[in-house]
């Protein structure tokens, strides 16, 4: 029995637990890459940072993502008599990508990431820190998101079975999470510098 077959069976029997474990591991992999590729040479590996990424991916993002992709799969447009099945599938795919990229990404996924990670870092002033990170990073992250995800999600929603969509997202997310982890962590010094200048003024 292949690993794919075993994994697919686990997804069908225990979809939530399987997605939580998989997503946590892949979020952690993204942070590992970010630390290895982009951290300063003299900086020690930050294990709690990777654990935070695993916790966020496994405990918060996976259950939400699992529900979200199943909900999107039920989102369809009325089938016109003049449409073939293939055309109807294509229109449904474009609708799902539009809702995902114009609703979920900017309003839920990106704010939730910066907010949750700030709380997991045990910030002494989480409200102000979250506000600062969103002001600094929300729009650049969203613009980068739109360079990557619309094209991928079009293929994902059109070609991949619904139970495997979160996994396919998570595989691409290794690189995406590497980017998010870099933005969140390796630019903290810039945010602190800006905050110090504001205090001095």
Give a written overview of the molecule.
Helix 2 (15-38) packs across helix 3 (47-73) and helix 5 (126-159) runs antiparallel to helix 6 (165-186). It contains 7 helices and no strands. It has helices at residues 3-13, 15-38, 47-73, 85-120, 126-159, 165-186, 188-200. The protein has one domain (3-200). It is mainly α and 201 residues long. Keywords: Membrane, Transmembrane, Transmembrane helix. InterPro entries: Mpv17_PMP22 (IPR007248). This is Protein SYM1. It is found in: Membrane.
Compute the number of helices. Answer: 7
Helix content: over 70%
Q: What is the 3D shape? A: globular
- Biggest beta sheet attributes: none
Calculate the terminal CA-CA distance, rounded to whole Å. Answer: 66 Å
Radius of gyration, in Å, reads: 19 Å
Question: Which band does the percent of strand residues land in?
Answer: under 5%
Number of domains: 1
Strand segment count = 0
The residue-averaged pLDDT reads 86
Order of helices and strands: HHHHHHH
Structural class per helix/strand content? Answer: mainly alpha
Runs with pLDDT <50, length 5+?
189-201
Keywords: Membrane, Transmembrane, Transmembrane helix
Organism: Candida tenuis (strain ATCC 10573 / BCRC 21748 / CBS 615 / JCM 9827 / NBRC 10315 / NRRL Y-1498 / VKM Y-70)
Protein name: Protein SYM1
Membrane topology: Multi-pass membrane protein
């Amino acid at each position: 029995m292949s690993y794919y077959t075993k994994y697919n069976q686990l997804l069908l029997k225990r979809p939530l637990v399987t997605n939580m474990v998989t997503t946590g591991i892949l979020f952690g992999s993204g942070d590992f890459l970010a630390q290895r590729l982009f951290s300063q040479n003299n900086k020690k590996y930050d294990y709690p940072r990777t654990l935070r990424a695993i916790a966020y991916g496994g405990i918060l993002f996976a259950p939400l993502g699992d529900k979200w992709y199943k909900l999107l799969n039920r989102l369809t447009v009325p089938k016109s008599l003049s449409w073939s099945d293939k055309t109807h599938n294509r229109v449904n795919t474009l609708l799902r990508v539009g809702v995902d990229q114009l609703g979920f990404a900017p309003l839920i996924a990106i704010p939730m990431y910066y907010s949750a990670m700030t709380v997991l870092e045990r910030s002494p002033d989480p409200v102000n820190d979250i506000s600062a990170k969103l002001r600094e990073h929300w729009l650049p992250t969203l613009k980068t998101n739109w360079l990557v995800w619309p094209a991928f999600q079009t293929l994902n929603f059109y070609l991949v079975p619904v139970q495997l969509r979160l996994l396919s997202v998570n595989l691409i997310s290794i690189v995406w999470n590497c980017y998010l982890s870099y933005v969140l962590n390796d630019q903290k010094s810039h945010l602190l510098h800006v905050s110090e200048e504001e205090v001095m003024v």
